[in-house]
Amino acid sequence: DLVRIQPYATKAGIIRTGNDIHGVVLKGIDKSYDTHYFSSGLQEGRFPEFHDSTSLNSVVISSSTARQMQLHAGDDMIVHFIEDPPRVRKLKIAGIYNTGLEEFDERFAFCHLDLIRKLNHWNNQQAGGVELLIRDLKQRGLLDTTIVHWGGEIGRLPVCEGDLNDTAGRDHNG
Protein backbone atom coordinates (compact mmCIF):
# COMPACT_ATOMS: atom_id res chain seq x y z
CA ASP A 1 0.00 0.00 0.00
CA LEU A 2 1.31 3.42 -0.95
CA VAL A 3 1.08 5.71 2.07
CA ARG A 4 2.69 8.93 0.87
CA ILE A 5 4.47 10.54 -2.06
CA GLN A 6 7.05 13.13 -1.01
CA PRO A 7 8.64 15.36 -3.68
CA TYR A 8 12.13 16.69 -3.02
CA ALA A 9 15.08 18.33 -4.73
CA THR A 10 18.71 18.70 -3.68
CA LYS A 11 21.36 21.31 -4.31
CA ALA A 12 24.99 21.29 -3.20
CA GLY A 13 26.36 24.35 -1.47
CA ILE A 14 29.14 25.59 0.77
CA ILE A 15 28.48 27.10 4.20
CA ARG A 16 30.92 29.82 5.15
CA THR A 17 31.45 31.33 8.61
CA GLY A 18 34.52 33.49 9.03
CA ASN A 19 37.44 31.39 7.78
CA ASP A 20 35.61 28.04 8.02
CA ILE A 21 33.81 26.33 5.16
CA HIS A 22 31.66 23.18 5.08
CA GLY A 23 30.07 21.40 2.13
CA VAL A 24 26.37 20.67 2.46
CA VAL A 25 23.56 19.21 0.39
CA LEU A 26 20.36 21.17 0.84
CA LYS A 27 17.36 18.87 0.57
CA GLY A 28 14.29 20.86 -0.38
CA ILE A 29 11.03 19.43 0.96
CA ASP A 30 7.46 20.64 1.18
CA LYS A 31 4.48 20.26 3.52
CA SER A 32 3.81 16.69 2.32
CA TYR A 33 7.16 15.46 3.70
CA ASP A 34 6.96 13.35 6.86
CA THR A 35 9.42 15.12 9.18
CA HIS A 36 8.49 13.13 12.29
CA TYR A 37 11.77 11.17 12.37
CA PHE A 38 13.86 14.34 12.11
CA SER A 39 11.64 16.37 14.45
CA SER A 40 12.02 13.71 17.14
CA GLY A 41 15.80 14.20 16.96
CA LEU A 42 15.77 17.99 17.26
CA GLN A 43 18.52 19.31 19.51
CA GLU A 44 17.58 23.00 19.16
CA GLY A 45 14.79 25.05 17.64
CA ARG A 46 11.99 23.64 15.52
CA PHE A 47 11.35 21.93 12.19
CA PRO A 48 9.46 24.37 9.93
CA GLU A 49 6.33 23.13 8.16
CA PHE A 50 7.55 24.41 4.75
CA HIS A 51 3.97 25.11 3.69
CA ASP A 52 4.24 28.71 2.52
CA SER A 53 6.73 31.43 1.64
CA THR A 54 7.24 32.49 5.28
CA SER A 55 9.62 29.54 5.70
CA LEU A 56 11.35 29.98 2.32
CA ASN A 57 14.68 31.02 3.89
CA SER A 58 14.53 28.65 6.87
CA VAL A 59 16.94 25.75 7.15
CA VAL A 60 17.44 22.84 9.55
CA ILE A 61 21.04 21.67 9.91
CA SER A 62 22.60 18.74 11.71
CA SER A 63 24.27 18.97 15.09
CA SER A 64 27.61 17.94 13.52
CA THR A 65 27.39 20.83 11.02
CA ALA A 66 26.32 23.21 13.78
CA ARG A 67 29.21 22.14 15.99
CA GLN A 68 31.80 22.34 13.19
CA MET A 69 30.60 25.77 12.02
CA GLN A 70 29.74 27.06 15.53
CA LEU A 71 26.10 27.77 14.60
CA HIS A 72 22.89 27.70 16.64
CA ALA A 73 19.15 27.84 16.02
CA GLY A 74 18.23 31.45 15.23
CA ASP A 75 21.59 32.23 13.58
CA ASP A 76 21.93 33.35 9.99
CA MET A 77 23.90 31.06 7.71
CA ILE A 78 25.53 32.06 4.42
CA VAL A 79 25.45 29.39 1.69
CA HIS A 80 27.44 29.72 -1.53
CA PHE A 81 26.34 27.87 -4.67
CA ILE A 82 29.09 27.22 -7.19
CA GLU A 83 27.47 28.22 -10.47
CA ASP A 84 28.17 30.61 -13.28
CA PRO A 85 27.70 33.20 -11.96
CA PRO A 86 28.17 32.11 -8.31
CA ARG A 87 25.14 32.62 -6.07
CA VAL A 88 24.87 33.33 -2.35
CA ARG A 89 21.87 32.99 -0.03
CA LYS A 90 21.42 33.99 3.61
CA LEU A 91 19.31 31.41 5.42
CA LYS A 92 17.95 31.41 8.98
CA ILE A 93 18.65 28.30 11.05
CA ALA A 94 15.27 27.20 12.40
CA GLY A 95 16.47 23.98 13.99
CA ILE A 96 19.30 21.55 14.57
CA TYR A 97 18.74 17.80 14.25
CA ASN A 98 20.68 14.64 15.06
CA THR A 99 19.75 11.30 13.48
CA GLY A 100 22.75 9.38 14.80
CA LEU A 101 23.59 8.49 11.18
CA GLU A 102 26.98 10.18 10.99
CA GLU A 103 27.39 10.28 7.19
CA PHE A 104 23.86 11.59 6.68
CA ASP A 105 24.19 14.20 9.40
CA GLU A 106 27.50 15.48 8.05
CA ARG A 107 26.03 15.99 4.61
CA PHE A 108 22.35 17.06 4.67
CA ALA A 109 20.39 20.15 5.68
CA PHE A 110 16.66 20.63 5.07
CA CYS A 111 15.04 23.64 3.44
CA HIS A 112 11.86 24.60 1.57
CA LEU A 113 11.47 22.83 -1.78
CA ASP A 114 10.56 26.19 -3.33
CA LEU A 115 14.01 27.55 -2.43
CA ILE A 116 15.66 24.83 -4.53
CA ARG A 117 13.14 25.42 -7.31
CA LYS A 118 13.91 29.13 -7.27
CA LEU A 119 17.67 28.54 -7.33
CA ASN A 120 17.26 26.12 -10.26
CA HIS A 121 14.79 28.36 -12.15
CA TRP A 122 12.15 25.60 -11.97
CA ASN A 123 8.38 26.04 -11.83
CA ASN A 124 6.29 24.94 -8.86
CA GLN A 125 5.53 21.51 -10.37
CA GLN A 126 9.15 20.41 -10.80
CA ALA A 127 11.14 18.30 -8.36
CA GLY A 128 14.41 16.40 -8.41
CA GLY A 129 12.67 13.20 -7.33
CA VAL A 130 10.04 11.68 -5.12
CA GLU A 131 10.23 9.42 -2.11
CA LEU A 132 7.52 6.82 -1.72
CA LEU A 133 6.42 5.62 1.69
CA ILE A 134 5.07 2.06 1.39
CA ARG A 135 3.41 0.13 4.20
CA ASP A 136 5.46 -2.66 5.71
CA LEU A 137 6.09 -5.14 2.89
CA LYS A 138 7.71 -7.69 5.21
CA GLN A 139 4.60 -7.84 7.41
CA ARG A 140 2.48 -8.54 4.32
CA GLY A 141 4.87 -11.23 3.05
CA LEU A 142 5.79 -9.15 0.00
CA LEU A 143 9.36 -8.10 0.85
CA ASP A 144 11.07 -10.87 -1.13
CA THR A 145 8.88 -10.49 -4.24
CA THR A 146 8.48 -6.72 -4.62
CA ILE A 147 10.74 -4.43 -6.61
CA VAL A 148 10.00 -0.73 -6.72
CA HIS A 149 11.76 1.19 -9.46
CA TRP A 150 11.11 4.83 -10.29
CA GLY A 151 13.11 6.59 -12.94
CA GLY A 152 13.08 10.04 -14.40
CA GLU A 153 15.11 13.04 -15.35
CA ILE A 154 15.92 15.70 -12.80
CA GLY A 155 13.80 18.79 -13.17
CA ARG A 156 11.67 17.46 -16.01
CA LEU A 157 7.90 17.46 -16.00
CA PRO A 158 6.25 14.07 -16.61
CA VAL A 159 4.43 15.22 -19.75
CA CYS A 160 4.14 14.27 -23.38
CA GLU A 161 4.04 16.89 -26.10
CA GLY A 162 0.99 16.41 -28.31
CA ASP A 163 -1.64 13.70 -27.94
CA LEU A 164 -0.79 10.65 -25.89
CA ASN A 165 -1.66 7.64 -28.05
CA ASP A 166 -0.19 4.36 -29.34
CA THR A 167 2.20 6.16 -31.71
CA ALA A 168 3.31 8.97 -29.38
CA GLY A 169 6.81 8.83 -28.00
CA ARG A 170 7.61 9.46 -24.36
CA ASP A 171 9.56 12.65 -25.04
CA HIS A 172 12.64 12.76 -22.79
CA ASN A 173 11.03 11.70 -19.54
CA GLY A 174 11.88 8.42 -17.82
Explain briefly what this protein structure is.
With 174 residues, this protein is mainly β.
Features:
174 residues; mainly beta; 6-stranded mixed beta barrel; 14% helix; globular; disordered C terminus
N-to-C terminal Cα separation, in Å?
Answer: 23 Å
Low-confidence stretches: 169-174
Helices, by number, come to: 4
Strand content: 35-45%
Structural class: mainly beta
The overall strand count is 8
- Spell out the helices and strands N to C: EEHEEHEEHEHE
Strand order of the largest sheet: 1-2-7-4-6-5
Large-scale geometry: globular
- Radius of gyration using CA atoms only: 18 Å
**Fraction of helical residues:** 10-25%
**Biggest beta sheet summary:** 6 strands, mixed, barrel
Query: What do the pLDDT scores average to?
Result: 84
Could you describe the 3D structure shown?
The protein has 174 residues and is mainly beta. The protein has four helices and eight strands. It has a six-stranded mixed β-barrel. Strand 5 (76-81) and strand 6 form a beta hairpin. The two termini are 23 Å apart. The chain is globular.
Layout of helices and strands:
Elements: E1 2-17, E2 20-29, H1 36-39, E3 42-45, E4 58-62, H2 63-69, E5 76-81, E6 87-97, H3 102-107, E7 108-112, H4 113-120, E8 129-134
Parallel strand pairs: 2-7, 4-6
Antiparallel strand pairs: 1-2, 1-5, 1-8, 3-6, 4-7, 5-6
